[in-house]
Amino acid sequence: MSQIEQALQCYEKALDIKSEDSESLLYKALCLEGLQQFDLAIAAYQKTLQISPRKILALLNYGRLLTNLDKNEEALEFFNEALKIKPDSCTVLFWRAIILDELNRLDDALESINFALKISVNNAFCWSYKGRILGKLHEKNKAVFCFNKALDIAPGFEIAIKEKKNFY
User: Fold this and answer.
1) Helix and strand tally (H, E) in the chain?
2) Which of the listed residues 45, 60, 101, 121 has the most CB atoms within 10 Å of its CB?
3) Helix 158-165 crosses helix 124-136 at what angle (to 10 degrees)?
4) Sign of torsion, CA 27 29 31 34?
């Protein structure tokens, strides 16, 4: 039995005791997602949000799962809802930028990632993703600047190295 399966059993036992425990439901959903039981994970996220509709981690992770399942419009709704509750969440803004990029709404994606960088100026992931967006907007010099900024923050950051190579 894997560690994820063991953790899932623990959360299910906790839910046997208190079925409306949104924390246990959230972590059950994450375990199910890790086991690639996506329909069950979706159901667990939905139940979590029925109990605690303002639970940021549930909104974020449900949106992230929907992103991974290519349900981008639906995922965007969850990220937008999370931002209504916590507008300064760098992580939610980052994932929102990814979705907007996937939806080819590059100006909106850039706006989202810029706001994330105002919150977390030393976030190498955000700088790298900003570079990716700028590259798609044909802003090569600005994109390379962003990849270099990411590498200044996190030398050897593979994502930035790989993305930067696309410009040479």
Assistant:
1) 10, 0
2) 45
3) 20
4) negative
